[in-house]
Amino acid sequence: MPKQTPSPKPPKASKISKPSPQSFKASDLSDREVDGQRLFDASRRGKARIVPLDDQQTIYWSSRTSDTAYTVTRKITNRRGTLIVAYTCSCPDAKKYLRRDCEHQFAEKLRRGEAVITGRVPASRPVKDKAGRRPARKRLAEDGRSIKSAQRDARKEMPNEIPRLVLSLKHAYDLRHPNAMALRHGKLTADSLRVAALLLKVAEGKSADAMVSRYQQLIEDGRLPLRRAPHQNTLGEWMNDDSLTPVLEEMLSISAEPFRLREIGAIIDSSKVSQLRVAHARLVDYGTDKRPNAEWMKAHALIGVETMVVMAVMFSSKKVHDSKFLKKLVEKIPKAFALRFLLGDRA
Q1: Helical spans, DSSP H, in the chain
Q2: Distances (CA, A) of 155 to 148, 160, 201, 224
Q3: Distance between CA atoms of 245 and 81, rounded to whole angstroms?
Q4: What is the 8-class DSSP label of residue 1?
């Protein structure tokens, strides 16, 4: 007898779970949901026109315009045994905010029992404070041009303005000290000229290698009174020269003169600075930078509250606490600024 193959078993009917009604607290309802709840209550009292077409579509007539109606469509999909109910509406609010329920969709959920409100909805909702409008953006500079064009022209002039300002500061220092020339390493170079070269490097934010060509360009243009561009190692020696610190401090005092009558308050704080840009503070702290010169310093500064001018500055190693420089910084400025109050952090 031929062997009979067993008939396949019928597939088991999968259980489809219906979504449970969604519960909403009356105090947590949004403005759209409150409007939908009021629309549902008005439909039960017969004051709102709602026409159910079938199990999927319902027409809501507008209360403002008699000839305008919106269609709410209900679509059910089966996703792995779970029924997913999605609503769409033809009103402008639903078209603008596709992911938000409009009042018609929320009213339809309440009508079908898919949304339940717990608590009592207040008759009037508290008015929320709204932020005022920002002031109009300033679009014109002081000379009448647009801000962008003025900033663009200023950026173009920076390669010329930075050397002019730095050398004018050197000239002001030389007027106070006419005999400030010193003979070092066989070259006649004033301390103020060394400081001006370092300030040019810091202001332009370039490395020592990149500044060699920049110095040579300024020398050829007759703006930097040097015989030849300083070597990279020479810049390192100038940066660590203690005799240049009083020159920098006096130049700082000269640059702060226009703000002395106005500034009466100061902010004191410290910040990490990299010595000669050979180290990063984070790499030094975590021990990943093993170079012998890989060290960073602290810059302790007094800054004006109104004008943001640098009143005084001092440098120290990272192990010195900030509070030890508070009295020293304040004692540097009584003759220059009429300091009345001081702001600082817990350090």
Answers
A1: 31-44, 92-96, 103-112, 147-176, 191-204, 208-220, 232-239, 245-255, 281-285, 326-331
A2: 11, 10, 17, 21
A3: 79
A4: -
- Tell me how far the alpha carbon of residue 63 is from its chain's centroid: 46
Count the Cβ atoms, other than its own, within 10 Å of residue 339: 16
Residue from 215, 206, 307, 190 nearest 255 by CA: 307
Alpha helices (H) along 113-244: 147-176, 191-204, 208-220, 232-239
Provide the 3-class DSSP secondary structure of residue 335: coil
- What count of other Cβ atoms lies within 10 Å of the Cβ of residue 44? 11
pTM for this predicted structure: 0.51
Residues near 214 by beta carbon (within 8 Å), at least 6 away in sequence: 200, 204, 206
> pLDDT tier at 328 (50, 70, 90 boundaries)?
confident
User: Do the bridges between strand 265-274 and strand 341-344 make them parallel or antiparallel, or are there none, so unpaired?
Assistant: parallel
Instruction: Give rounded-to-5 percent helix, strand, coil for the chain.
Output: 40, 20, 40
- CA 326 to chain centroid: 30
Beta strands 265-274 and 187-188 are unpaired
Determine whether 175 is exposed, middle or buried from the number of CB atoms within 10 Å of its CB (0-12, 13-18, 19+): exposed
Report the distance separating Cα 53 and Cα 33, nearest Å: 23
Nearest-angstrom CA–CA distance, 258 and 337? 11
CA 174 to chain centre: 42
| 211 phi/psi in degrees, rounded to 5 | -80, -15
Tens of pLDDT along 221-275? 888 888 889 998 888 888 878 888 888 888 888 888 888 888 888 888 888 776 5
- Residue 307 neighbours by CB under 8 Å, 6+ apart: 259, 262, 263
Terminal C-alpha separation, the chain: 100
How far is it between the farthest Cα atoms of the chain? 128
Q: Cα dist. 208→217, 230, 283, 289 in Å?
A: 15, 9, 21, 20
50 backbone dihedrals φ, ψ, rounded to 5°: -125, 125
- 57-61, strands of its sheet edge to edge: 50-52, 57-61, 69-79, 82-89
